[in-house]
Design brief:
Length: 130
Amino acid sequence: MTAVPNSQREAVLALGATRWEMIRIGVLRNSRIGIVGAIMLGLGRALGETMAVTMVIGQSSRHQQITFAPANTLASVIRWRVLRSHYDIYLSALIEIGLALFLVTIVVNAIARLMVWAVTRRRSDAGALI
């Protein structure tokens, strides 16, 4: 949002907009692509992170229905169980967990691309009307 030029902000204020309207119209509208990209980048990094998330939510192999109880992420299950999997059924389960993690990542990336495409298309359509 700091990349929006001051001339753009001053132009919106010169047209009689209030400070909040300047932020909403002049700054947020022009920095929408960067905000969406930052959110998707953070979400993608959080999905693939193993150790930091494991340390934050606690390592627990018991399935609990309590919201704030220790739990596991998909990546941490793969990381902790791969060394202890001596049977083929465990290896198959870990491969399926990896596939689920891969599919979730693909879906998140596809949604991010669609959102950025929609924002850039609206911006190019608006520029064609001017």
